[in-house]
Amino acid sequence: MTSPEKFDELSAGLAGGVRERDGLIGLAMLGSASDEASARRDEWSDHDFFAITEAGRGREIRPDLTWLPDHDRLVLTAREGEIGFAAVYDDGHVFEFAFSDAAELEGALAGDATVVVDDAAGTTARLIAESRARAAAGDRFDPANDVRLVLVKLLIGVGRVRRGEVLNGGQFIRQWAVQLLVRAIRGRFTESSTSVRDTIDPVRRFERDFPEWGARIADAVERPVEEAARALFALTREILEPGWDEFPTAAADAVKRRLGW
Q1: How far is it, in rounded angstroms, from Cα 248 to Cα 241?
Q2: For residue 43, what are the domain limits?
Q3: What are phi and psi of 141, to 5 degrees?
Q4: Span 88-100, mean pLDDT?
Q5: How confident is the model at residue 196 (pLDDT cuts 50, 70, 90)?
Q6: 242 and 190, same domain (yes or no)
Q7: What CA–CA distance (Å, rounded) separates 218 from 213?
Q8: What is the DSSP string of 132-144?
Q9: C-beta separation of 85 from 65 below 8 A
């Protein structure tokens, strides 16, 4: 467990490492690592951040992670794509970060964020402002379309499972159908989605806004895979169908018939 004091020490160490490393010009703390979301931190909070390099120097600088604080305590570092990184300390604390120049982060999304280090041109502040604007613009739901896709994912997933492709079918059911169901619920009941929600990932803190439905969806997902699919199908109808003219009732009935439910 990382204490609040140690969390702050690591944050300060990150800022110092960025300032001292040649070629690094910016640092933005994201999510619960940011100042504005600090009240949300708990023992499971990680450090999420953008580390910004001078233009065009990302590929050159990325192999070197010695600027990370307490470098001798790192037990693992790993790449996630070209610019994504993860690092784990000996106490289990996690860093997840993008390490690149601003151009490589074109299209990035950000919610809560604090710019800690920046250059004279305000490169990092501009990147964060644009990333937050993109996240806000994308924070829209189309529940009528999302619920249709829930039915599609469940139908395909169960078919794959019955074919013997349990792992792949499970992805359709436990991952994609659940994500779409959450989106559909948030879109259908927008007044219940509070400011604690994540504008990038609607599944984050879903249980805070919809505790009963969150618990029941979680219970459904824990069941054997086809039973999970059937429970999610039932929840979809129970939660979304009553009093909603846009619910695809005929399609739900067709899926039920096809799967012999």
Answers
A1: 8
A2: 4-138
A3: -125, 145
A4: 93
A5: low
A6: yes
A7: 8
A8: HHHHHHH----HH
A9: yes
